[in-house]
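Page 37, continued from 36.
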């Protein structure tokens, strides 16, 4: 039965979220209730034509999301009896609809209570009794049986799942929307995370636990105790579980608590045959363990940076039995060059949590991580500068905070600026940066596992650029010099103070960047980006962000006109050249193969016989 809804006022600007028209406080208890709503809204299309989970479904998905199209339910995937649903959250509207107004309302109220001082007055508590009541309803509740246990089998055959192979050089099919549940072997603290699972064979998958992940910490603790780690993977269930699984919560805060707070009630759990708790309203549960000391090659996989992550050894998930609804639906997503479905969830999560940043980091007014760079490659921050160099204290605080600690390059200012507008933000910073004292590069640090710009996996460097106070220079806005250095083909202006140039590829001239930095023709420009295609890099802000910050590592690819060491600080002289060319060790950029692209183009009218779904350009997507 469909739940009732009530109209609700738009959340104010203090949350950072601009709600879409018609948004309600409706909460969806499971995947199919959300699909019912999308169907009522005309925002899901059922594809009855047989389609192949190997490459074909992913390319259909990419073309639809590139055009801002609907969610997709593939009713007849080849080699499986289970329908596949994708693009559930691939627009701002659907992402907000899935999680509703409740999370933003709760964050706003919580921040107001904290800002008014603790403990709050009795009148304030009464005014926020809804929040307090919600606090009493969080957690899990036991139910006798749940839809997820309608079909339970110890005859495991993962090949019957319609898992997607998304890119031509992927190592195989992957489960891309898994909710991976573990418990710490000593404390029992639960964790719910989302880690891709490559299907190795009928009974095993990879377990892609990157550095800094809660499930990985549980596994490490189990290995130290000489024990396997019991693990359960859920597919589907309340949409709130997905938001909770990817939220950057403190390590010991249970994600199921957040999910129940978002959904407004306790998450129903029923017992599996071995007694482990199962999310009652999930579509599918894979139940097993991750053996200690066992690794197996995993990958390659086309990931959200827009390149392949390469083949490495990862733990193995051994599935002992499966549980599912009788009419289960298999949720999946596809990642690649921005903007894909994960972008809309990531930005919604940033908007949701942004009011909390000044609470947990008092010197920080706002932070924005750029999804166009994979989120971890670049962030901007507005901070307080109440005394000289306080901004660096805030920068260190940001770089030590949860998932923000993976940030590769951080732009920092103490003046109000729209961080989401990279042209405005970069112009603001460049006008104020004193590169001799305001540019910092920190080497020999951990780096996001999926970022291959460092010397080896998980290792690299970070950079911080301050732009504080009043402007210290006038920025040029046009490049008027008729002559350019040798082998430079194109010079383009991205924003005042920032040029983008292209020329020889890295293999042809590895040292082109320092040569360009020393050339007097660029002396008036504080920042020059050396790229492989200047026209492409400046075609849009998204292109600039993606082609620049996913292709450089601060310690290796920042080249000043000159530098010297003063008091153990490297002092840089502008212009600063960022070498953002593709380099020989980097993985390949993601492109659909010609055969699949041709197949999808030819069959488009079979997929959508009634029309109404535009065929976008999956290779360029939202980049241009």
């Amino acid at each position: 039965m469909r739940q009732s809804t009530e109209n609700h006022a738009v959340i104010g600007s203090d949350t950072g979220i601009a709600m879409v028209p018609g948004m309600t406080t409706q909460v969806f208890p499971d995947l199919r209730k959300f699909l019912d709503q999308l169907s009522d809204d005309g925002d899901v299309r059922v594809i009855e034509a047989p389609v192949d989970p190997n490459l074909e479904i992913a390319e259909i998905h990419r073309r639809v999301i590139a055009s801002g199209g609907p969610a997709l339910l593939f009713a007849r995937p080849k080699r499986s009896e289970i329908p596949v649903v994708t693009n559930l959250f691939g627009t701002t509207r659907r992402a907000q609809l899935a999680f509703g107004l409740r999370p933003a309302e709760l964050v706003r109220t919580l921040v107001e209570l904290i800002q008014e001082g603790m403990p709050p007055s009795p009148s304030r508590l009464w005014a926020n009794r809804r929040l307090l009541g919600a606090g009493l309803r969080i957690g899990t509740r036991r139910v006798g049986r749940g839809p997820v246990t309608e079909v339970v089998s110890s005859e495991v055959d993962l090949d019957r799942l319609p898992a997607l192979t998304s890119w031509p050089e992927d190592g195989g099919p992957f489960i891309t929307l898994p909710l991976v549940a573990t418990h710490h072997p000593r404390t029992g603290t639960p964790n719910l995370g989302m880690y891709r699972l490559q299907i190795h064979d009928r009974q095993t998958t990879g377990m892609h636990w990157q550095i800094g992940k809660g499930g990985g910490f549980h596994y490490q603790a189990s290995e130290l105790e000489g024990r396997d780690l019991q693990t359960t993977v859920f597919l589907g269930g309340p949409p709130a579980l997905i938001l909770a699984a990817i939220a950057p919560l403190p390590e010991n805060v249970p994600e199921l608590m957040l999910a129940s707070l978002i959904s407004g009630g306790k998450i129903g759990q029923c017992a599996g045959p071995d007694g482990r708790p199962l999310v009652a309203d999930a579509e599918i549960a894979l139940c097993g363990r991750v053996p200690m000391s066992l690794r197996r090659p995993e990958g390659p996989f086309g990931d959200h940076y827009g390149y392949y992550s390469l083949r490495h050894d990862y733990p193995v998930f051994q599935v002992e039995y499966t549980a599912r609804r009788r009419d289960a639906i298999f949720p999946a997503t596809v990642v690649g060059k921005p903007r894909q479905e994960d972008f809309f969830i990531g930005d919604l999560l940033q908007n949701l949590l942004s009011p909390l940043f000044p609470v947990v980091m008092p010197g920080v007014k706002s932070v924005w991580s750029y999804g166009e760079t994979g989120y971890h490659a670049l962030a901007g921050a507005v901070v307080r500068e109440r005394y000289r160099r306080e901004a660096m204290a805030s920068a260190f605080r940001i770089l030590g905070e949860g998932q923000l600690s993976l940030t590769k390059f951080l732009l920092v200012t103490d003046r109000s600026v729209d961080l989401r507008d990279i042209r405005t933000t970069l112009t603001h910073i460049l006008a104020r940066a004193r590169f001799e004292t305001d540019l910092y590069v920190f080497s020999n640090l951990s780096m996001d596992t999926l970022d291959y710009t460092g010397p080896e996996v998980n290792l690299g460097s970070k950079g911080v650029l301050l732009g504080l106070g009043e402007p210290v220079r006038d920025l040029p806005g046009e490049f008027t010099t008729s002559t350019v250095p040798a082998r430079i083909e194109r010079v383009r202006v991205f924003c005042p103070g920032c040029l983008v140039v292209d020329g020889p590829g890295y293999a042809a001239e590895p040292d082109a960047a320092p040569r360009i930095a020393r050339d007097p023709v660029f002396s008036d420009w504080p920042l020059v980006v050396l790229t492989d295609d200047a026209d492409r890099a400046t075609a849009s802000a998204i292109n600039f962000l993606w082609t620049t910050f996913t292709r450089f590592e601060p310690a290796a690819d920042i080249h000043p006109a000159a530098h010297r060491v003063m008091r153990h600080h490297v002092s840089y002289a502008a212009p600063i050249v960022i070498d953002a060319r593709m380099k020989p060790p980097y993985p390949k950029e993601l492109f659909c193969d010609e055969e699949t692209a041709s197949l999808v183009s030819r069959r488009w009218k079979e997929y959508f016989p009634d029309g109404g779904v535009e065929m976008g350009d999956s290779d360029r997507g939202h980049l241009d």
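The chain has 19 helices and 29 strands. Flag for discussion at group meeting. The mean pLDDT is 90.
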